[in-house]
Structure formats: structure tokens, C-alpha cells
Hints:
Radius of gyration: 15 Å
CATH superfamily: Vaccinia Virus protein VP39
Strand content: 25-35%
Helix content: 25-40%
Number of domains: 1
CATH architecture: 3-Layer(aba) Sandwich
Number of strands: 6
Strand order of the largest sheet: 1-2-6-5
Distance between the termini: 21 Å
Order of helices and strands: EHEEEHEEH
Number of helices: 3
Shape: globular
Structural class: alpha+beta
Amino acid sequence: MWVQWVLNYLTDADASATLRRCAVALAPSGRVIVKESLSRDVHGTAVDAKDASVTRTDAHFRRIFAEAGLAVAHTKMQPNLPRAVYPVCMYVLEPDARDLWTHLDHAAMLRHF
């Protein structure tokens, strides 16, 4: 499942909930790919009031992924971007085995709808 430049328009809680729903919908060997712009760590989270977006740091994204029950399996930075723009990172996420029971409970719940 591919999620690109979506999370930057969601609150942390909504981003976590959205990713959890993505994780529940995955096939057994499926992965969630997230591609987002990153705020540089020295600047922290950047809020753009004009377009209502939030640009998070890598550490911030990793907390959201963990809250969603997803573990980072791999990352790759978008190469050759000009320094004037935010760096872009692609994350390969997989359900965290420690959170497996929670995913199974959600999957069972979704079957009733």
C-alpha cells in the first residue's frame, strides 16, 4: 500500500489511526510504503498555515509509525533534491510482530462491517 504526501495533512492521532487501518488491510506479506517530506531535525516540526500542512522530523514519523503498530523495515532518501526544498524519505513499514494481536483484533472487527 502506497501513502504519499498524505500524512502531512493529518494530525498525529489521525495519521496513526490511518496507518493502523492500512496495516489491518494488508495481505499477510504486505507492506505500507510512506513517502513524505521531512523537516530537518534542527528545525523540528514545521507548520505551514497556508496549506494546513505539518512537516515532521524522522523521529516524529517513527513515533507515529510505532503508535500505529508498524515497524520500519527500510528507508530511502529521495536523491538529488536541491537543498532549498525539504528532504523526502520513503519508509517501508511492516506490522510490528509485538503488536500482532492488536492487528488481529482490528481485522476481526472489520469483518463485521
